[in-house]
Amino acid sequence: xxxxxxxxxxxxxxxxxxxxxxxxxxxxxxxxxxxxxxxxxxxxxxxxxxxxxxxxxxxxxxxxxxxxxxxxxxxxxxxxxxxxxxxxxxxxxxxxxxxxxxxxxxxxxxxxxxxxxxxxxxxxxxxxxxxxxxxxxxxxxxxxxxxxxxxxxxxxxxxxxxxxxxxxxxxxxxxxxxxxxxxxxxxxxxxxxxxxxxxxxxxxxxxxxxxxxxxxxxxxxxxxxxxxxxxxxxxxxxxxxxxxxxxxxxxxxxxxxxxxxxxxxxxxxxxxxxxxxxxxxxxxxxxxxxxxxxxxxxxxxxxxxxxxxxxxxxxxxxxxxxxxxxxxxxxxxxxxxxxxxxxxxxxxxxxxxxxxxxxxxxxxxxxxxxxxxxxxxxxxxxxxxxxxxxxxxxxxxxxxxxxxxxxxxxxxxxxxxxxxxxxxxxxxxxxxxxxxxxxxxxxxxxxxxxxxxxxxxxxxxxxxxxxxxxxxxxxxxxxxxxxxxxxxxxxxxxxxxxxxxxxxxxxxxxxxxxxxxxxxxxxxxxxxxxxxxxxxxxxxxxxxxxxxxxxxxxxxxxxxxxxxxxxxxxxxxxxxxxxxxxxxxxxxxxxxxxxxxxxxxxxxxxxxxxxxxxxxxxxxxx
Length: 622
Description:
With 622 residues, the chain is α+β, with helices and mostly antiparallel strands. The chain is 48% helix and 13% strand. The protein has four domains: 3-137, no CATH class; 184-303, no CATH class; 314-399 and 433-481, no CATH class; 547-620, no CATH class. The protein has a six-stranded antiparallel beta sheet, covered by helices on one side. Strands 8-3-15-18-19 form a five-stranded antiparallel beta sheet, covered by helices on one side. Helix 10 links the parallel strand 13 (357-358) and strand 14. Helix 2 (23-42) runs parallel beside helix 4 and helix 5 packs antiparallel against helix 6 (118-133). It is elongated and about 130 Å long.
């Protein structure tokens, strides 16, 4: 085997699988690979098996200490990375190389468990071909891999997978489930993950209307229990369990695995539908799946055309005991207000007049309602949402906090919106004078750029520009050709990812029926073409001759042309000697071919094997 190709193939998979687990695992794996490279380059002494075995046991102990199990996707993949890199470090012979070759394919399978997007598929295929070439053999049609491709495509198209046939949920990984917020809101709960650009969901609008980042409010959870800066969600009763099929959906969401029940919907949404999982609508107008979602999921939504009227409840006015300065401020803000809408506007004007700031690191001076209002006067979206909802309730206006995602990044090539952790957001709803829940976002007052740019671009905005109306200036600063070229490449790759994901995970029996109804004839032709190689091979399969059998057949054919026939009781050596007596000029060639045949057939030590081309050259001389 070619050691360097083996190292390269394993390195590719270790890097890409390592990106899905904790960083120390990939760092350790790459350290052992670099050690192996140094051994190969400078002929250093290899570590003993006792040393590598001790490290393997230590690695297993660390993983058990961290994950408490080796049966989860993250823990097993982490151990596989460390096991492979340590085995590579101690590799000594062909047996070790073959074992590593097999471990490489297990790593590729682990990679595809994490992701089937374009980068993962590209890395997996590259690793496969590099590992295969390490055997110093060419990839031919006769190989099992190439023969299996048409059959795999046929099975995918004509026998779509059944979604979760036995009711099992996938293995949860530690990198999943980070949706940017939990069932509660407190200072730092959203801001701590704003630097992450981990994908949460993609949205494709099914109509012709165009939307801006500031239009995009995707509702996740409704929090109604107030403890000042901390808001939590009580158990809400279910309003509706079954939904009629939407005749014409307005949007489609592709949600990444999260291990939670949360479903993010356009605000406002009337109803949802999904062919893959049941869901419920809870009081508070938010949707949840019946079971946690451990796999990438797709659902469609229908906009709500009218805002329903509701009656307020005592829970919508619950607040903790407030300090005297806060009570005085509330009395001042409501003194001349004529409606609930006026009170909400006066609170926003207070934030403007007192020059409150939007800060990515507000510190401890904004940890409570009093500190935020009278000391720090700076905070993140959770500070403003929690404070405004508390002030509204103190003014006898029913209010609640909503958490979800706002902004998004539009992909012009794939025509979809992408939402990442950086788009996590919190805002407020209050019951207006018409008894309708109305959204108010205090972030619009202190940081309008957050809504105009979306979470990802906003994170790159200098903090001194926030609240200064410089969103357009920032966008102009990103017009450099190299930035635009990078964005074009990234958006194209993301578009391919999205199309691939939709095709792979959304191809079920219903999609198959739609496809076959539209392309019935072409589907039959394609199926026949995919199966044709296997049918032809089954009916016209010929036994492949060994080198010795081929050589014997060629010798007998040459003898027949010279009117010589081998007797049944005659060995090949006896026949060849008789042939050589009658034609002494070809004796040398005959004896050489005889030695080759006997070496191949009986494994005796004789003349070295000639290539088929060299053997044909000798046969022509007969």
